[in-house]
UniProtKB/TrEMBL annotation:
Residues 26-499 form the Major facilitator superfamily (MFS) profile domain. The chain crosses the membrane at residues 28-51, 63-83, 95-112, 124-144, 165-182, 202-220, 256-275, 295-316, 328-347, 411-433, 445-469, 475-495. It comes from Anas platyrhynchos platyrhynchos (Northern mallard). The gene is MFSD8. This is Major facilitator superfamily domain containing 8. The keyword Ribosomal protein does not apply. InterPro entries: MFS, MFS_dom, MFS_Domain-Containing_Protein, MFS_trans_sf.
């Protein structure tokens, strides 16, 4: 969506060089905050299960699922709250408080081994609080939306998403480096601190959070510009530099378009959460991989997709100037649809069936007859020392006996396409959403958008554990394709409404769609 200014009396108003530098320094602090938020989620994700088993042997795979989901639940609750806060008070306040909560939560995680009992619940609380602190994502995106002009918005949102993706990529890398400390590590008895491969990553995250708080106080400044880049006043300044009154804020937000974008964003994150979650059980069932191989190979694939995503974020910044955000979002959804359509089982060859241990009507250990453990909880599990893990598609999943296997070439092709389509949809959703809202305070709206994304990440694993386990990949991927098709129809219906606030009210002209 490329825009040009209409002739006006205010067109000669320019931004001073000092203001420009201060504004972009603050935006870079927001990039760092976004990076640290994603690192806080991913830096322990591979070690949660062995650490949980170590501190509390009563914890099972189902509880691990709750521990992982607690992050998204905390973020979903906190995002609207921090969004409201940022609309009426200086944004430094919710940013500092949320980061301080994350720091405290990481310290709590490092001490969950200390209590004599119920250790698993302390870990659950710690991860939920880390997620609660990550609710500042809504504040970050609302600030960036308010501190950039329309011509800067797509690039800034792409950079934000890239920092988030890099955080998800580097988190496991940091975790891998800390494994050199070992499981025992060193103990500081004076303060009951065990510094080992499980606690060092979160303490490192706490240190980064403290640095972030210092930078927010030292460097971050409140800035707000209108869609044309002119500095304007805001309640967030609280005595700091102010600008001209924002006359462009007059007018109503198109709430139909806002609801539609929330739905589209939910779908985008939901299908990607399903994609992430289903990787391990799918490859174990189809290719007879052990848990160790599935986690290892899928970890490599997800890392490559992460690098691919960062590249895509950079490319769409330039591409959007030629084609516009709406067309790119449409193309991204189509690519995701093709990616999941490729995953549908074809042919006649069946996957290898897991017959091992089916003796005297016993049930394989991978799936209980009374309870289906979400497969997302299998990631990071340790192999039994006797290496007796059964492999193949469990016979207790009845679809294994009549559903054709998904070939490895299908799986890799799908990974590439979904890894291309998802980042395109992600950054275009944020960009279009922020432009819809215009110069009005966006904290609450961004809070709801972030909450819808968190809800999607909670429901994705539930979908996998129920639909995939009971009905198989044909039903699971068919339903996903149906959901994406519905989202494409919704996009078509609201396509003409997805225009910038200033364009809608005739203050700027739209050159490309």
């Amino acid at each position: 969506m490329i825009l040009s200014l209409l002739p006006s009396k205010n067109r000669d108003v320019v931004e001073t060089q000092e203001h420009y530098k201060s504004r972009w320094r603050s935006i870079w602090i927001m990039y760092l905050t976004m990076f640290l938020s994603s690192v806080g989620f991913s830096i322990v994700i591979m070690s949660v299960w062995p650490y949980l088993q170590k501190i509390d042997p009563t914890a099972d795979g189902s509880f691990l699922g709750w521990v992982i989901a607690s992050y998204s639940i905390g973020q979903m609750i906190a995002s609207p709250l921090f969004g409201v806060w940022s609309n009426y008070r200086p944004r430094r306040e919710p940013l500092v408080v949320s980061t301080a909560i994350s720091v405290a939560a990481n310290c709590l995680y490092a001490y969950v081994h200390v209590p004599p009992s119920h250790n698993k619940y302390y870990m659950l609380t710690a991860r939920a609080l880390v997620g609660f602190g990550a609710g500042n994502v809504a504040v970050v995106r609302s600030y960036i939306a308010g501190a950039t002009s329309l011509t800067e918005r797509t690039s800034a949102m792409a950079n934000t998403s890239a920092c988030q993706a890099i955080g998800f990529i580097l988190g496991p890398v940091f975790q891998t480096c800390f494994t050199l400390i070992g499981e025992e590590g060193v103990t500081w008895k004076l303060i009951d601190l065990q510094l080992n491969m499980y606690t060092a990553p979160v303490l490192f995250g706490a240190l980064l959070g403290i640095i972030n708080i210092i930078l927010i106080f030292a460097v971050f400044r409140e800035h707000r510009v209108d869609d044309m880049g002119r500095q304007c006043s805001s309640i967030n300044f609280e005595g700091e530099e102010s600008g001209v009154p924002d006359q462009d804020a007059e007018g109503n937000v198109d709430h139909i378009a806002v609801v539609a974008m929330n739905f589209l964003f939910f779908v985008i994150l939901f299908v990607f959460a399903v994609f992430e979650t289903i990787a391990t059980p799918l490859t174990m069932d189809m290719y007879s991989w052990t848990r160790e191989k599935a986690v290892f190979y899928n970890g490599i694939i997800l890392s490559v997709i992460g690098v691919e995503s960062v590249t895509v974020f950079m490319v769409v910044k330039m591409l959007s100037k030629r084609t516009g955000e709406r067309a790119i979002l449409h193309a991204g959804l189509l690519i995701v649809l093709i990616g999941f359509f490729i995953l549908l089982p074809w042919g006649k060859k069946l996957p290898n069936i897991q017959w091992q241990e089916i003796k005297n009507n016993s049930i394989p250990r991978t799936v209980s007859s009374e309870m289906v453990i979400p497969f997302w909880s299998l990631q990071g599990m340790q192999l039994p020392s006797n290496h007796s893990e059964p492999v193949g598609c469990p016979v207790t999943q009845s679809w294994c006996l009549n559903t054709p296997m998904i070939y490895l070439a299908q799986y890799i092709s799908s990974d590439i396409l979904i890894g291309l389509g998802y980042p395109v949809c992600n950054v275009m959703s944020y960009t279009l959403y922020s432009k819809l809202l215009g110069p009005k305070p966006q904290g609450v709206y961004m809070g709801w958008l972030t909450a819808s994304g968190s809800g999607a990440r909670i429901l994705g694993p539930v979908f996998v554990s129920q639909i995939y386990t009971h009905l198989g990949p044909r039903w699971a991927f068919s339903l996903i394709c149906g959901v994406v098709i519905i989202s494409l129809l919704v996009l078509e219906i609201v396509y003409k409404r997805l225009i910038a606030f200033s364009v809608r009210y005739g203050r700027m002209q739209e050159e490309n769609c």
